[in-house]
Amino acid sequence: MTYVLLLEPNTLLAKTYTQLFEHVGYAVGHATGAQEALAIADKRTPDVVVLELQLPMHSGVEFLHEFRSYSEWLKIPVVVNTLSPPSRLAALYVALQSDLGVTAVLYKPQTSLQVLLRTMRQQLAQI
Amino acid sequence: MANASEGAGGDVDSLLLSVAEQLKIPLTVIARQAELGHMTGDGTLVDASTIRVQADAALQLVDSYLLGIRLLREQTELPLEPVSVSSLLVDVAHSLERFAEQYRVQLEVSIAGKYQPVMAHQQGLKAALVSLGFALVEAQAAQGTGAKRVTLAIHRTPHGLVTGIYGQYEELAAKQWRRALQLQTSASQPFHGLLAGSAAGLFVADAILRSMHSHLRPGRFAGQQGLATTLQPSQQLRFV
Amino acid sequence: MKQLVTEAIILTRIDYGEADRILTILTPDYGKLHVLAKGVRRVKSKLAGGIELFSVSAITFIPGRNGLDTLASTRLVTHYGAIVGDLDRTMAGYDLIKQLNKATEDQAEPAYFHLLQQTFVALNDCTVPLPMVRLWFACRLLQLDGHEPNLQTDTSGQTLTAGQGYDFSFDHMTFNPSPDGGRWQVQHIKFLRLVFGQASARALSRVQGCEQLTAVLTPLVSTMLQTYLRV
After folding, report:
1. Mapped to the 3 state alphabet, what secondary structure does B40-64 carry?
2. Chain C: closest CA distance from residue B22 (Å)
3. Three-state secondary structure of chain B
4. Contact yes or no for A2/A27 (Cβ under 8 A)
5. Which of B98, B106, C3, C229 has its CA 20 to 30 A from that of C191?
6. What strands, in cross-sheet order, belong to the sheet with A102-107?
């Protein structure tokens, strides 16, 4: 069963995403912050990570920097689904991709559940 | 009279940007909830209550922001009235109740003793505390595992009546709050140690309070940390 | 066993065996070190789990053989938390750490620690424009590596003067009088002197016209960096 690590600080959004993922047969580990996410990944290696960059205490970039420093987590696809506006992300996209292994970047307010799911499936298919 | 535009909260444009960023959250929750039912064909997955409460919270933020802007612009004439802060706090708690429930945060009100009324702009004070409450409830919900509780409290100090909202927050001290006010215009997460995102609710609350010659500042209550404002009981009303 | 104490900024981490990690750190007293952190891949270990980007820690380590020391303890001293409040600054910080790590390869003078620490300070201060932090960092990196351009005289030894337009020679790292106006004027050279001379990036933001000067000079300095440090 595909296991999704969902890093989402807003618990209501997380609930919606979790309901969607469970509906399509995925298992979900949800964390509201970077440290918690590492602990969850440590217990069970995720197949894909869905990540908000704007997190309390630490940013999603910090999480990725730590996450990617572990060899067993180097190849796990990471889908960034963030509130950070596209104008900001465009300038950082290359760095997110090449330095931190981000495989897809989505702008959350304009990303439907359908597009999110499709993107995740595409990433999983490429492993 | 203190200049209500002093401090980061007085910047109308930056407040608008903060609020606009913050509104993405409830609107995204509403959009995705609506889509969930449609996509899965399972109407029971859609929580109509979530949609309603999030819509109400968004509208409240917009209203508080508009009030804040009006108060900032109309600095000289504020309709002051005697306000029972205890009653107001209970009122604020009612406004936050459903929101806190959705975020699985327990809301408590602590009013020990009787307090004199304060001369304040009632609508503004309520809007400020509700804005603050929304932000701190959301912040508490995201603070990892463990029981989540937010307390609305009033207590007397030599400086006046301290009215605030408190919880278990890791990084909420005067230094971080001052930094957040400085970063309001330049950082996407000016108070990331407390909560993700623009923290608009805090800045709107602060802007409204500044127009009343008060402001938010970090404080402690019963082992919890939070943000509070100090209000002066009316000496005239004491003799009424 | 002799234990040494110093401050450190972590540059990279890699796995080592089942439970351990090797950290590459920058210190003010010993330069760049590789230290073995035992058992930190278990999230609950006392050294583990911390997210250490943009931090200075106090560490105790035991000198080892073959260039690999052993980490005994670590304690967070300063976390430059405002950096992570802004995505652009976070990515810039990450990028500058990478650049410094690459520029220093196997060893680094203690001065690199202070450069990185001051870079964190500047990134942490949102009143310092990000492009200025980058320019200052690049100049300091060139300087530490011995590739500071000659900002006083041209290739033939003549003093640089006002009213003259200059072109830049990457081979000689000098400004040379241009027969047809030149790309660079005295205000650019003066600003570069200031950038190379400042111990921190903060002071630069008080210079009039600094943002425009930064924008114009950044490509020049970036090319110097790519040419000589390959970063």
Report:
1. HCCHHHCCHHHHHHHHHHHHHHHHH
2. 15
3. CCCCCCCHHHCHHHHHHHHHHHHHHHHHHHHHHHHHHHHHCCHHHCCHHHHHHHHHHHHHHHHHHHHHHHHHHCCCCCCCEEECHHHHHHHHHHHHHHHHHHCCCEEEEEECCCCCCEEECHHHHHHHHHHHHHHHHHHHHCCCCCCCEEEEEEEEECCEEEEEEEECCCCCCHHHHHHHHHHCCCCCCCCCCCCCCCCHHHHHHHHHHHCCCCCCEEEEECCEEEEEEEECECHHHHCC
4. yes
5. C229
6. A27-31, A3-7, A48-51, A78-82, A102-107
The whole-angstrom separation of Cα A50 and Cα A53 is: 10
Residues of A in contact with C15 (CB under 8 A): 69-72
User: Is residue B3 assigned to a domain?
Assistant: no
This model of the complex carries an ipTM of 0.92
Domains defined along chain C, listed by start = 4-81 (2.40.50.140), 127-228 (no CATH)
Out of B182, B186, B193, whose CB is closest to C81?
A: B193
Q: What is the CATH number of the domain that holds B107?
A: 3.30.565.10
Contact B39 A20 (CB under 8 A): yes
* CB of C69 closer than 8 Å to CB of C61: yes
* Candidate from B25, B35, B192 with C-beta closest to A10: B25
Closest-approach residue (CA) in chain C for B179:
C82
Q: How many domains does chain B have?
A: 1
pLDDT-based confidence at residue B240 (cuts at 50, 70, 90) = very low
In a domain, B64, yes or no: yes
Check residue C84 and report its DSSP letter: G
Confidence band, pLDDT 50/70/90 cuts, at residue B43: confident
- CA torsion, points C93, C97, C99, C103, in degrees to nearest 10? 150
**Domains in chain A, ordered, with CATH?**
3-125 (3.40.50.2300)
Q: Which domain holds residue B41?
A: 8-238
Instruction: Say if the Cβ atoms of C87 and B188 lie within 8 Å.
Output: yes
Answer whether A10 sits within 8 Å of B29, measured CB to CB.
yes
> Quick check: is B85 in a domain?
yes
B181 part of a folded domain = yes
pTM: 0.85
| Integer Cα distance of B12 and B29 in angstroms | 27
pLDDT tier at B5 (50, 70, 90 boundaries)? very low
Substitution target in B179, B181, B191, B195 with the highest count of C β-carbons within 10 Å is B179
Q: Is C53 on the interface with A (CB under 8 A)?
A: yes
Which residue in chain A is spatially nearest to C50 when comparing CA positions? Answer: A35
Q: Do B196 and A55 touch (CB under 8 A)?
A: yes
- C128 → chain B, closest CA residue: B186
The amino acid occupying position A69 is S
| C-alpha pair distances (Å), B134 with each of A12, A58, B152, B163 | 14, 21, 12, 16
